[in-house]
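Lab notebook, bench 4. The sequencing result for the construct came back, and we need a structural model before the next group meeting so we can plan mutations. Quick request posted to the team channel:

Model the 3D structure of this chain.
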Amino acid sequence: MIRETEVSVKDLIYPLFVVPGENVKHEIESLPGNYHWSIDRVMECVDEVVELGIPAVLLFGVPSYKDAVGSSGWDMNEPVQQACKLIKEKYPELVIITDVCLCEYTEHGHCGVLQNGCTVNNDETLPLLAKVAVSHAQAGADMIAPSNMMDGYVKAIREALDAAGFNHIPIMAYSAKFASAYYGPFRAAADSAPSAGDRKGYQMDPANSDEALREVSLDIEEGADIVMVKPALAFLDIVQRVHETFNRPLCVYNVSGEYAMVKAAAEKGWIDEKRIVMETMLGFKRAGAKMIITYHALDVAKWLQGK
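Done. Here's the predicted structure in token form:
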């Protein structure tokens, strides 16, 4: 009766990886229990998401081709755009959120256009990110979640969406995204690891807290409807500061490394997986998160429903 914090199925967002090809359901080695899905089979997973009452999915795409500028990111025939159309036709009420970045689509694996082969050109990248966002909205996405961390990215995407007639599409900004070692399993899953260098030039130093608040403030000024802290577990102090400082819906991303460590320890029998995961979800909510992106979403939904 006096419990202060509750976790609900309605808090959850489930990440989905869509890939080229046919009849593909391939377990992601670094994210056990999660799969690469081809378009002809992705509805198997979406059906389960809807049946469990999870309100939203976050789509990531592995493209059929890559180039220097990531042009497959705005190709309407690629997996993310095709998945948006298919899901929206069957489940119009399911919220489709799409990741907007170039790392999955560029041959070098960086989140923007490179100059001199090593440095991301921020300003040349912005219009390309806007093209990706508009293509997703045209395909049926309900929300755009840009994860690239370029300066001015929210403004560029907001203006492009508005100009294309999608002023109703909200933006969930990866506002405080840290240059974290916890992303390792995801980069294998999305085939998005940089071929050279790292992303410290445009992602945040994990040592910085005040900078996170400045980044969130800038994104809100540019039009972000929802802000995010990523990763979540090692940055709960940032989550709480953002929650207490800004009057905006706050999302956390329970990232791949956090997930993989739990799964590995559970496989060894060293931890009680259900208790650990649910305690973690409570921690996110207690710190102030309203939404949780997590690879545990299917299991959490089942546990909450006593399945």
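The mean pLDDT is 92.
Will bring this to the meeting.
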